Amino acid sequence: MVTKLRIEQLADHPEVLPLLQEWFETEWESYYGPAGPGDAHRDLVAYTNRDRLPVGVVAFYENELCGVAALKAESISTHVHLSPWVAAGLVSPMYRRRGIGAALVRALEDIARSLGCSRIYCGTSTANRILERQNWQFMEQVTYNGEDVSLYEKLL
User: Fold this and answer.
1) How far apart are CA 6 and CA 72, in angstroms?
2) How confident is the model at residue 32 (pLDDT cuts 50, 70, 90)?
3) Beta strands 119-124 and 85-91: pairing type?
4) In what helix (H) or strand (E) does residue 91 lie, and over which residues does it extend?
5) Domain range annotation of the chain
């Protein structure tokens, strides 16, 4: 059976950058919104690398964009000694709870392996179950930018 879900590199789909920018600005308004310190467009363009960090992946369900995630050298500034990081994971609300987030994480694990990484990290306040079901190991709970964040590690 052919699956309706495809995970591809963001570098192959520059046409989705404007929509992803809207998603980032809406989902993380305190960071990417008008009063926030982030620049969604700049970050997304940075994720268009293919063979070096940062690299992004996008998910399509029946040719409709439904998710994005990135593998970055740095994410949690209090833990710069750890690298690389699964980050910027976002699935469109109408596509959540369908395994798309897990598929994005698996794709980034594969990319990390291809780049020679032996372990990867993730900090999350929302995707704990996704990571734990894929055998990520909880490391510690931290407060980062005023939010409780769980840090995870996975050996590749």
Assistant:
1) 21
2) very high
3) parallel
4) strand 85-91
5) 5-155
Task: Say if residue 1's pLDDT is above 60.
Answer: no
- In angstroms, rounded to a whole number, what is the distance separating the alpha carbons of residues 76 and 69? 16
What is the band of 43 on the pLDDT scale with cuts at 50, 70, 90?
Answer: very high
Amino acid at the residue 145: N
- What is the spatial distance between Cα 85 and Cα 109, in angstroms, rounded to a whole number? 10
With a CB cutoff of 8 Å and minimum separation 6, the contacts of 44 are 10, 17, 20, 21, 24, 56
DSSP class per residue in 106-128: HHHHHHHHHTT-SEEEEEESS-H
What is the dihedral sign for C-alpha 119, 49, 67, 107? negative
Q: Which top CATH class is 5-155?
A: alpha beta
Which strands form 147-155's sheet, in the order they lie side by side? 5-9, 55-61, 64-72, 85-91, 119-124, 147-155, 137-144
Q: Is the pTM of this model over 0.90?
A: yes
The helix or strand, by DSSP H or E, that contains position 154, with its residue range, turns out to be: strand 147-155
Is the predicted pLDDT of residue 134 greater than 60, yes or no?
yes
d(CA 150, CA 39): 24
